[in-house]
Amino acid sequence: MLHFIQQLGSSTRTSFAKLGRATLFLGHTLTGAVDVAIKPRLLLNQLHSVGVLTFLIVTISGLFVGMVLGLQGYNILSDFGSEEALGIMVAASLVRELGPVVTALLFAGRAGSALTAEIGLMKATEQLSGMEMMAVDPVNRIISPRFFAGFLSMPLLAALFSMVGILGGHLVGVGLLGVDDGSYWSQMQANLDFYDDIVNGVIKSIVFGFVTTWIALFEGYDSAPTAEGVSRATTRTVVNSAFAILGLDFILTAMMFGDI
Amino acid sequence: MDNSDISADSLISVRNLSFSRGNRKIFDDISLDIARGKITAIMGPSGTGKTTLLKLIGGQLFPEQGSIVVDGLDVHQLRRKELFNLRKRIGMLFQSGALLTDINVYENVAFPLREHTHLTESMIRTLVLMKLQAVGLRGARNLMPNELSGGMARRVALARAIALDPMMILYDEPFTGQDPISMGALVHLIKSLNTTLGLTSIIVSHDVTETSAIADYIYVISDGKIAGQGTPKEIEASDSAWVQQFMKGDPDGPVHFHYPATNYIEDLLVCSQQTARIAAKKETIKTDESLNATGLKNAKGLKKTLSRKRGRSRYHRED
Question: What is the DSSP string of A93-145?
Fold first, then answer.
């Protein structure tokens, strides 16, 4: 029992120390905005590797999620004779929840793990130390452009996911199951609210992008400079990002749509 | 070389330096001087903190006690901007080369120039080609770091280290893992760069022959203290048994071949006595099983006990 309490105390102290390091790291990263503004090319390069290279997985996943929503939604709605509401059901599900959440989970798996591995390897191969000794701040030069690239990419990727998902729902609902084309779009247009649905969805995706990129970069920067350390950090990125995304989703949903 | 001579014209003065990692004392109140314009070697076995000393000099680590003064500036009292200004005058060659892996050789050498100067592209090109020519790799400018051999990577890193014409270069294990040709090229480069550019060089290494061949002064570090110092000849003639063992690479001496352990014969006897006891108990179990079928449960219990004991004894033997 005493051992358990000791372990609990030790892991709590370790966690708080890590949270403190992560907060300082975030503060340092944000100061790199100046470097990014001076050298926008750094940001553009990272927008390509963080954003554009995640494009394909998000597009394909969005299409399949939309198709599944179209199929499941049709089966339920047809029981109540409300097939024409399929458009709003698919769109609201995607824009409010699935777009930001699934995109963030995919982003953590594709871009987040790649960021952690890249930064961890740079640390293990002394590239970050080398920069420090060349009087170049590695956080401002390497971390900040990646952070802002992730932060900016996520809302765009989530919007892309929702858009492709809505088309996927249309493909199955209208193309295969015979839902009226006009109803699909007009229901969506009439019932989807710009502020309540779209803006809230965008806010969620911005928050998820911020947190996921922060976790990925910090885990890489804080990893042990060995092959094992980098692999552990990559795993932690995916796990911690998933927890953070799903936990924050509940909090944000409660704040936006609930009465809590 | 007399120690007082070094102090008179030293570029780096380390005074009463102490540094620990966890409970392990890496440096225990050491003081040393690095002479301006000379090649000074810091030698010692692996894990004695040679690289740590370079990181302390570069301001990447903070000491527990003591000071490091580089060209009149106390490294650990400097503000961040002042420290970065000092680092622009220090080149460092890392053990792995530490080249940026996503850009080619040319861009790696141009990196510090692009970051810290406002030179035109044609000027940068001229400087990069000059630095690459100095290390013999002008023809490899378009290669990526993963296309270079270990020796070539270190030479590119050396070209990058001299890109800003520093006042001194810190070499972290420059000869480790090099084939004889690469090793010879690096030895020649370090010596010739130091002479032609008027640099001050600090080489951290445990490659005795190569380092002694080019060093003007050597410090040998062991157990957080300076075990010996002097010119290569003085070190060679040192009356310290430890320094002699290190320089000659003798397998036994003050640093023992065997890790501290209990008496070998006693250890073996304890082992065979335990085996005999276990064998005797096994025999007893077998007899019990054949004599008393109903006592099977007890025998199994005894077997479990024995296997637990065996586990413990195996642990003790290894320990």
Answer: IIIIIIHHHHHHHHHIIIIIHHHHHHHHHHHHTTHHHHHHHTT--HIIIIIHH
> Per the domain annotation, does B21 fall within a domain?
yes
B-chain CB neighbours of A121 within 8 Å are: 101
For chain A, say whether B319 makes contact (Cβ under 8 Å): no
Looking at the structure, tell me whether residues B184 and B151 fall in a common domain: yes
Residue B2: predicted pLDDT: 41
Residues of A within 8 A of B85 (CB-CB) are 135
Domain count, chain A: 1
pLDDT given for residue B89 in this prediction:
92
B206 and B76, same domain (yes or no): yes
Q: What is the C-alpha separation between B92 and B34, in angstroms, rounded?
A: 16
Question: Looking at A11-20, A26-35, B196-205, B244-253, which range is the least confident one?
Answer: B244-253
pLDDT digits (tens, 9 = 90+) for B106-118: 999 999 999 999 9
- For residue A91, the 8-state DSSP code is H
Amino acid at A69: L
CB-based contact B94:B172 (threshold 8 Å): yes
Q: Residue B276: what pLDDT? A: 81
Domain that includes residue B286, residue range: 264-318
* Cross-chain CB nearest to B96 (options A126, A133, A134): A126
In tens, the pLDDT along A139-189 reads 999 999 999 999 899 999 999 999 999 999 999 999 999 889 999 999 899
Q: Are residues B206 and B269 in the same domain?
A: no
A225 domain residue, yes or no: yes
Point out the domain boundary residue: B187, B216, B248: B248
Residue A240 lies in a domain: yes
B115 has a chain A CB within 8 A of its CB: yes
Q: Show which of B248, B273, B300 is a domain's final residue.
A: B248
